Amino acid sequence: MAGHVQPRQLAFALPHAESLTRDNFLEGPANEAGLTLIESWPDWPNRIMLLAGEEGSGKSHLAAIWAEQSGARSISAHALTAASVPGALATGALVVEDLRPSGFDERALFHLMNLAREDSAYVLITARLAPVAFDIELRDLRSRLRAVPVVPLSPPDDQLFRALIVKFCADRQLTIDESVVNYLANRIERSYAAARQAVELLDTEALRQGRPVTRALAAELLRNA
Asked: 145 and 112 in contact (C-beta within 8 Å)?
C-alpha cells in the first residue's frame, strides 16, 4: 500500500501594505540629507530637487512624506506626457517618480520643468542615478536636468540595516527574534533590496512550510540560495 503523501502547502503572494508616514521612516546617516531636504520645505535651494539612491533606499517614502505636507500630486516619469503636465502641476507641487536614463518623454519633462519655473511650482524627482549619468538627446533638457541639485541617499549603515530587516518583517506581520536579525545582517549583502528580498523569502517559505521564522529556517534558505 502506497504511503500517504502530504500535499504541498501553497504560499499565496498577498499584498503587504507598507506604511509611508513620517513616523515610520527609519532615520540614519545614509538618509539624513534626504530627510533634511523634505523637512526644510519650502525653504529649498531650488524649486526642483532630485533624490538619488539605490532601489529601496527610501526615495518613495520621503516623496510620500513631502507629498502629504505639500499637497503634491505624483506621477511616474515614464507616464509623463506633454498633455498631462498642466494637470500634474495643478496643486503647485509634484513628485516625479523613478526617472531613469531612458524610457521617458524628454520633451514632456522639459515642458514640465519650464512650466514649473513659470508657475513657481515645486517638483521633487526621484531616481536611482544622478542625471549626469543619463544619455539625453534634447540638449536644453540635458543642461537643465544637470543643473538640478541632487540629494544622495547612501547605502545603509549597520544600525539602519538591522532596523530595516525588523521593519520589513513588521510590514509583513512576521515575528522574529534578535538571532534572526543578527544572522541575516551578517550574511546578506548590505543593501536595501537584499534586506527586502531576504524577508520576502523568509515569509514565503515559512508560510509554505507552515513553520515559524527562525534562525534555522534562515540558515536553510540562505544555504540553498
From this structure: no
Distance between CA 1 and CA 90 in Å, rounded?
73
Distance CA 181, CA 28 (A): 18
| Domain encompassing residue 191 | 158-224
Question: Do 73 and 56 reside in the same domain of the chain?
Answer: yes
DSSP string for residues in 116-177: HHHHT-EEEEEESS-GGG---S-HHHHHHHHTS-EEEEPPP-HHHHHHHHHHHHHHTT----
**Which helix (DSSP H) or strand (DSSP E) does residue 94 occupy?**
strand 93-99
Choose the final residue of a domain: 115, 136, 153.
153
- Among residues 84, 91, 151, 94, the alpha carbon closest in space to that of 122 is found at 94
Q: What is the tally of structural domains in the chain?
A: 2
Averaged over 143-166, what is the pLDDT?
Answer: 95
Specify whether the CB–CB gap between 125 and 50 falls below 8 A: yes
Q: Which three cell numbers stand for residue 219?
A: 540558515
Task: Count the Cβ atoms, other than its own, within 10 Å of residue 35.
Answer: 20
Interval 182-204: pLDDT, tens: 999 999 999 999 999 999 999 99
Greatest C-alpha distance within the chain: 82
Q: Alpha-carbon Rg of the chain, whole angstroms?
A: 21
Task: Give the integer Cα–Cα distance in Å for 89 and 85.
Answer: 6
